[in-house]
Write a structure and sequence with these properties.
21 helices, two-stranded antiparallel ribbon, transmembrane, single chain, 1% strand, mainly alpha, Glycosyltransferase family 39 protein
Length: 433
C-alpha cells in the first residue's frame, strides 16, 4: 500500500509538471499572440532547418517544387528550396525531426490543413519538447539517486529546469535541438548508470549497451559536434584503475563494439542518404565555410561571462558546479576529472567556433545539451549546502537566482539586442524591462 501511495504521489507530481509546461509553451506560441509565421513560432530560421525533413520526407518526397509557394521565406529562411533542381537544402542534421516525427505525424493526421506547416503541426513541436524534457529529467533523476539523497536529487532537477536555460528551450525555443540533446545525454548517462553493480545484476548487459548505443547515436544524429565530448562519457562511473581496465575491455569487445557501431551507423544512414541526394557524396560538411578560426585564441570569457549569451551570466546557479567538482573529487576523483574535462572541452570547442555565442541564443544554448553531465556536481554542492549552517542563506539565494533566470527567460527575444558581446547596457535593460 505504501509503495502504491508513493507511486501515485510521484506520478501526480510528473503529471502536474507536464501540465504546467504544456500550458506555458502552448500559451507562449498561441497563434493569436505570436503568429504561425513569425520569429516567435516553433518553425522559424534554425528551427525550420531542423523541421523541414518532416514535410520533405512524408509529404513532398524531397521535391522542392512540390512545397507551398514561398514557405522557406515564411519560416525565416532556415532552409532553401531550389525549384530549378528540386533540391531541399538544409545544413542542419535530421535528428530533431526524427524525435519530433511521432508527434508531427499524429498532428498531421488530425489536421485539416495538409501542407506540413499547419497550426496543429506547429503545436506538435511544443508537445514533443515537453515530452523529451520530462523524459530527460526522469532518466537523470534515476542517475542522481545513486549519488544523492532523494530530496537533493529533486532539488537539482528543479534547479536545472527553473534556474538554467533548459526551461527556455523546453518552453520557448521548442524547435531547437537542445532539449532533444538534453534527453539524449540523459539517456546515455542512465545507460552507463545501469552498468554499475549496485544498479543491476548485469544479467541484461546487452540491453544496457543497446541503450548506451542509442544514446550515442541520437547525440550524433542531433548535433554531431556533441559526439566529440560524449565519447569520453563512456568511462562514466569508473572509480579506479581496475574499473578502467574492465570498462575498456567491455568497450573493445566485439559484441559491445558491434552494438555501439551498429546503433550509430543505423541512425547515421538517413543523414548520409540526404547528403548523397544533396551533394552526390555521403562525405559532406553541410556548414560550408563555418569553422573554428579561434582555436588558438578561444573566446572563453565571452562564452562564460559576456552579456551576449554568457553561460554563467544567464545561468548563475551553474557557478555551483566548480564547488561540486571539488566535493566530488574527494569521493570519486575519476568522475570529477571526467566531468571537468567534458565541461572544459565543450567550453573550448564553442570558444573556438566562428560564432562563439551561437548567434540567437539564451545563456549559451550549446551547454543545454550537457546539463545532465553538470547535474551531478551541482547536486553535490546543493547537498553540502543543505547540510551546513548556511542552509537558509543558500535557499534564499537559490530562490533569487531562479527568479532572475525566469525574469530574463520571458523577457528575452531569442537574440541579444546588439552585436556587441560586452554591451552591459542592453543586458541591464533586459533585466529591468
Amino acid at each position: 500500500m505504501q509503495i502504491t501511495a508513493a507511486f501515485l504521489r510521484t506520478a501526480g507530481c510528473w503529471l502536474v509538471l507536464a501540465a504546467a509546461l504544456l500550458v506555458l509553451t502552448l500559451n507562449r506560441h498561441a497563434t493569436s499572440k505570436a503568429g504561425r509565421f513569425t520569429y516567435k513560432s516553433e518553425v522559424w530560421a534554425d528551427k525550420a532547418g531542423y523541421y523541414v525533413y518532416l514535410p520533405a520526407t512524408f509529404l513532398y518526397g524531397f521535391d522542392a517544387r512540390a512545397f507551398p509557394d514561398s514557405v522557406e521565406f515564411k519560416t525565416g529562411k532556415g532552409f532553401q528550396l531550389d525549384r530549378t533542381t528540386g533540391k531541399v537544402i538544409t545544413k542542419y542534421p535530421y535528428g530533431v525531426a526524427l524525435l519530433q516525427s511521432p508527434f508531427w505525424l499524429t498532428a498531421h493526421a488530425l489536421s485539416t490543413e495538409k501542407t506540413g506547416f499547419s497550426k496543429l503541426e506547429h503545436k506538435s513541436i511544443d508537445i514533443a519538447a515537453v515530452w523529451y524534457v520530462l523524459l530527460g529529467l526522469g532518466l537523470l533523476w534515476r542517475v542522481l539517486q545513486q549519488w544523492l539523497p532523494g530530496k537533493q536529487a529533486v532539488l537539482t532537477l528543479a534547479l536545472l529546469l527553473l534556474g538554467t536555460n533548459l526551461g527556455f528551450y523546453a518552453i520557448i525555443e521548442t524547435g531547437m535541438s537542445h532539449v532533444y540533446a538534453f534527453f539524449a545525454f540523459a539517456l546515455l548517462l542512465h545507460g552507463l548508470h545501469r552498468l554499475q553493480p549496485a544498479s543491476t545484476g548485469r544479467n541484461s548487459a546487452l540491453g544496457i549497451w543497446l541503450q548506451i548505443g542509442l544514446g550515442l547515436a541520437l547525440i550524433v544524429a542531433l548535433r554531431p559536434i556533441d559526439a566529440v565530448w560524449a565519447a569520453p562519457l563512456l568511462l562514466w562511473g569508473v572509480a579506479d584503475s581496475a574499473g578502467l581496465r574492465q570498462r575498456l575491455r567491455e568497450l573493445l569487445s566485439l559484441r559491445v563494439l558491434a552494438v555501439l557501431v551498429g546503433c550509430v551507423g543505423l541512425l547515421l544512414l538517413p543523414q548520409l542518404a540526404y547528403y548523397q541526394y544533396l551533394k552526390g557524396s555521403m562525405l559532406t560538411y553541410s556548414y560550408g565555410q563555418e569553422g573554428f578560426p579561434y582555436w588558438a585564441r578561444p573566446k572563453l570569457l565571452e562564452v562564460w561571462l559576456a552579456p551576449e549569451d554568457g553561460l554563467f551570466l544567464y545561468n548563475p546557479v551553474l557557478l555551483l558546479v566548480p564547488v561540486g567538482l571539488v566535493l566530488l573529487w574527494r569521493s570519486r576523483p575519476a568522475t570529477a576529472a571526467l566531468v571537468a574535462v567534458v565541461a572544459l572541452g565543450v567550453s573550448y570547442t564553442y570558444a573556438a567556433w566562428w560564432a562563439y555565442t551561437l548567434g540567437c541564443s539564451y545563456g549559451h544554448r550549446g551547454f543545454v545539451d550537457f546539463l545532465p553531465v553538470l547535474a551531478l556536481p551541482l547536486g553535490m554542492a546543493l547537498q553540502r549546502g543543505a547540510n551546513s549552517r548556511w542552509c537558509g542563506v543558500l535557499a534564499l539565494g537559490l530562490v533569487l537566482l531562479i527568479a532572475y533566470n525566469l525574469k530574463l527567460s520571458f523577457a528575452y527575444e531569442t537574440c541579444f539586442p546588439t552585436d556587441n558581446d560586452w554591451d552591459w547596457t542592453s543586458w541591464w535593460k533586459l533585466l529591468t524591462a
